[in-house]
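Batch 3, record 17
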Amino acid sequence: MPAVVIDGRRISDEIKAELQVEVARLRQEGIVPGLAAVLVGDDPASALYVKMKAQACDKIGVFSDVIKKDNNSSLQEVLDLVMQLNGRDDIDGILVQSPLPRQIDEAAVTRAIEPSKDVDGFHPFNQGLLLAGRPLFEPATPLGIIELLNRSGNSPSGKHVVVLGRGFLVGKPLAAMLSVKSEYANATVTLCHTGTRDIAAHTRRADIVVAAMGRPRFLTGDMVKPGAVVIDVGTNEIIDPAHPKGKRVVGDVDFDSVKEVAGAITPVPGGVGPMTIAALLKNTVKACKLRHENR
Amino acid sequence: MPAVVIDGRRISDEIKAELQVEVARLRQEGIVPGLAAVLVGDDPASALYVKMKAQACDKIGVFSDVIKKDNNSSLQEVLDLVMQLNGRDDIDGILVQSPLPRQIDEAAVTRAIEPSKDVDGFHPFNQGLLLAGRPLFEPATPLGIIELLNRSGNSPSGKHVVVLGRGFLVGKPLAAMLSVKSEYANATVTLCHTGTRDIAAHTRRADIVVAAMGRPRFLTGDMVKPGAVVIDVGTNEIIDPAHPKGKRVVGDVDFDSVKEVAGAITPVPGGVGPMTIAALLKNTVKACKLRHENR
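Prediction for the assembled complex:
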């Protein structure tokens, strides 16, 4: 029996609908959550992501301010902008779209964001709270994955999860988050990476596999335990002459072979991707509520 | 063939001897590394730990200042002291001995320490750098364990390490540190805890087991793969009428049964314990060097 396909768009819509209700309630009190999105340079993919995030804000009643900076902006100019956003009362969350142009030290920009407005969760202070199991903001993609698991009836609690990839954006924080003693996590996590000797030996034992290493269709059906849940975080562009555009996006999972073995699987696109935006919105509304509670 | 017993005292002495040479060199430049140890209250175990740390400083030429505060000190008094130490030029590292009296919010004290003097590595900012794989100061016990593995000829690189216990002091940071892509780490790590269904199934597959859950003699010989390396972080006081004091300290590992199966094992005491102090000294000397380089 082929795997159940987990619908990330539907679950993401569910979260957005919940947030919309919360935002409406806040607005009745005269509070409007606000997100500032900083876009430096003219990378078309970055521009698209920022646009999608702003549209998602609009849809649920969150104010969004997209601020574009020139491709040759200096580090100081971007830091000045961030400091200004830190001080703005109408802005609860600040995101600086990655990647930044070469001349800009991304870590320095991240550290300039006031931790209470760091809705991307990448400030070292927030990463530290995450590791300590008392997070303020959890990074969007791992948070989206944990929501996806819980809301699709695949609670990770008590399960053995194998995470593939030790990246800063997904693998590392996800492993820490899944290990936390909470009803939404509480998993036994194995973190595999390029230094792992026999990845298949690990994945074959896993109840849940999360593939986040950026290698197209790496995880194949023979590497998965029958009935396991497989989450695909990859977005790899591959050449495909058969496709109208000559190329298409595939995940880190070989969908066709894995879906014959797994119990549940996320598609690419339409799996983890939409969850990331929902998680960002969730953090923004949280930031707004915390800022107003602490007054 | 019974396991090789890893001598933590010898390896700790080796590190201290190296640090002593480094400190002598710094002193020739007129630089004396300094550690401030804050002891609040009259817990005898805490007093002993602080005394051991100060003595270890003395021995390698590091200046130490032990500052004692009354058991009923207020949070504000302790914060004021920390702020004062942050500003002192003769102090490179600050440690506040745990546990603190009830009325003092330990997290608030940790956050008050200037991250560049946080040689215990527990400030959220430093924990965040740790998770991101670009650490400034690594917490002493996990750092000591990684030194112990590498210096005893049991490099974790490419190995499967099972860590038992998801505590803030050892398990969680150690799992993150062992996963980093570096010649000293680069391990595939599984983090087990009270939420893990079958701990023995995990430990039996491990090349290295680190037991850090605080359960006396939990890990027994039948739970270990022949030839595995076993690191015991536990220090549990148990009643023992046969002992002159009526009690003694045992680890999380059942030494007698495990040593018949494992390839190498650390004793308690004399294994991880001494490494923790060596790691603290290492961080203090590092803090001193960084502070003088950045001038």
